[in-house]
């Protein structure tokens, strides 16, 4: 009886693995490098949970729940972050490293928020890259920009380079690629005189897009704060954020660069580390706050400093992370962070945090810690036993990050996290 039960269970496990591999084994154009919470890939009418390492194919639809967050690295080096409550369709992704000028890339954000860092394809074949939202088409003619869209509005702020925004109509169809060159198309470039702090805005039923000061958008519509920006790496790559989750809402446009960056001392990243950049790259314009010998948290010291006036409790949301497990044989294996929480009480100068971290040989482990925060520096350290945590808050208090370590069995679980409001 026990032998029959074991065979049955083994068969169930094998069939489940085959189902997962069926979804994750199509012609790959990208790979999931981080999956937090609950998300799903839909392919040919079938849906399966998103797991780290799963391949992404053209035609896939990525759906995240309220706690879902997925990072994807594409074959040309592009990166996309799909935020909670989002639906992103990878409509087309053709890339030949031998002939990148013939690339063909299109995304459609049905709902929610995405952020992308352009790869070689979008840089070389700008006329063949398109990001559609329900209302507008966005073509890349530059490097660094933020886009926010709802069913009724779209806002674009350019930090560096240029973009072209055009309302979808008979002259600018969703089926097309590249920037639309219609009478209603508008270009926004960081090099335009007098355009510093200006946004390109289009609202449904308007005759054409208009330029407005970003600050003037506040108070004119229902304002919903955008999710804090995650690390984007090189400033020479294009960044896009779009949100179409709340019809009728215009969201606050924030600076596109993160004020916290994780750097590593090692030349090469360890297994499970899709978070860090090189130490010297992270050092550029930043200063180290905390570090453990591998992970170093860098902070932009030129940001507005609100540490001395911060008060009350802030509950941060997990944006990204990296984790590894060093097993008893001293071998490092990749681990994944499945979710967590971070609460900082600036008034009482305390913090509490917890994570769920999974590695193949140890299953899911809880990492919990609490401790104190220095209000003058924003650096916080754990005072509890079990897990060691050390981190810092950005000077404007919009972000936080920490590294952690926890003994598990005869090994140790280590990693780093980045959080936003």
Automatic annotation (TrEMBL):
Signal peptide extent: 1-26
Classification via Pfam families: FecR (PF04773)
InterPro entries the UniProt entry points to: FecR (IPR006860)
Keyword Plastid: no
Keywords, comma-separated and alphabetical: Signal
FecR protein domain segment(s): 60-163
Protein name: FecR protein domain-containing protein
Organism of this sequence: Candidatus Accumulibacter aalborgensis
Taxonomic lineage from the root: Bacteria, Pseudomonadati, Pseudomonadota, Betaproteobacteria, Candidatus Accumulibacter
